[in-house]
Design brief:
It contains 14 helices and 7 strands. The protein is of the alpha/beta class and 326 residues long. It has 2 domains: 48 residues; 252 residues, 2-enoyl-CoA Hydratase, Chain A, domain 1 (Alpha-Beta Complex). Strands 1, 2, 3, 4, 5, 6 and 7 form a 7-stranded mixed sheet that branches. Helix 9 links the parallel strand 4 and strand 5.
Length: 326
């Protein structure tokens, strides 16, 4: 069992056990001494520690897994479960934002339209992709592709993975808030089935700009929030170090959002996160996407729009209990 090259703080006990396992196995090979009992004992300890850690993750720990540098990104899932993806470029107004990718592909033999936020793996690609933070032209490109999906009767699949829209001066000058707002309106009225998948980070309006869909799926260790935990902590506690407390207060994790009705289904991940077995994560996503697409295709377009309206009309509805009087 090879120790992971990158371990989160709460995973360090596992990394140490994996190192001990590798040392014992290597010593057994080099000295020709039977250390099977010791190796088996370490294996049991690793299994127990994994179960203890990953079955009791805090919201903040899930945020950390969502940001793991080895986590599969949209292009990884596209390569694994779609065929003949053809990327389209540009918003036909200003530029081609590489933080958002999109184009047609085939899913289980049927044509679909994909729109996705894409982070970078290495420093050079991170700069090209702007760390997965779209600018106004990215959202306008996404809207162009969404309208194309509607025109050609293609289901729309969006992959959300961003800390938020880019907040720079140039982005504001080109009206990023207006671009997101237009997308919210147009996606809400789009006359084709649509599904969004939160594969990692779902940060603020930057995520929502491609997330107003008929169904919202979330990977088990992803998060979806009106603001990053660090941003919330800086506002409420005047200290970004209070991010773990903010993550708990925001109810950002997939299991909480499924209970609240924001997410329609949670896609299970391999133990420790999708980066530990990307193929298994992709298989789980493929199965879940197919199921929800079949459900949506059974509705007429008018039924689809009505159901979408009702879904978003009732999000955030709450009841206020009156004071109890003796």
């Amino acid at each position: 069992m090879e120790a992971p090259a990158y371990a989160l703080e709460f995973e360090k006990p596992l990394r140490e056990l994996a190192r001990q396992f590798d040392d014992l196995r290597q010593r057994s090979i080099e000295t020709n001494v039977d250390l099977a009992n010791e190796i088996e004992s370490i294996e049991r300890k690793i299994e127990t520690t994994q179960r203890d850690i990953y079955s009791n993750l805090t919201p903040w720990q899930k945020v950390q897994i969502a940001r793991h540098p080895k986590r599969p990104y949209a292009l990884d899932y596209i390569a694994a479960i779609f065929e003949d993806f053809q990327e389209f470029h540009g918003d036909r107004q200003f530029n081609d934002d590489r933080a958002i990718i999109g184009g047609p592909a085939f899913f289980n033999g049927d044509a679909v339209m994909i729109i996705a936020q894409q982070k970078g793996r290495d420093p050079r690609e991170r700069i090209v992709r702007n760390f997965g933070m779209p600018q106004p032209e990215g959202y306008r490109k996404a809207l162009r592709l969404a309208r194309m999906a509607e025109k050609f009767h293609l289901p729309l699949l969006t992959f959300i993975d961003t800390p938020g829209a880019f907040p720079g001066v140039e982005s504001e000058a080109r009206h990023v808030s207006e671009a997101i707002a237009v997308n919210l309106r147009e996606l809400a009225m789009l006359r084709t089935p649509s599904i969004s998948v939160v594969v990692g980070e779902g940060g603020s309006g930057g995520a929502l700009g491609i997330g107003v869909t008929d169904r919202v799926l979330m990977f088990e260790n992803s998060y979806y929030s009106v603001i990053t935990p660090e941003g919330c902590a800086a506002i409420l506690w005047k200290d970004a170090a209070a991010a773990p407390k903010a993550a708990g207060a925001l109810n950002v994790s997939a299991d909480h959002l499924e209970k609240l009705g924001v997410a329609n289904e949670v896609v299970p991940e391999p133990t420790g996160g999708a980066h530990n077995d990307p193929a298994q994560a992709a298989s789980a996503l493929s199965y879940t996407l197919a199921k929800h697409l079949n459900d949506l295709r059974a509705l007429s377009l008018d039924q689809l729009i009505e159901a979408r309206y009702e879904r978003y009309r009732h999000l955030g509805v709450y009841e206020e209990a009156g004071a109890v009087r003796s």
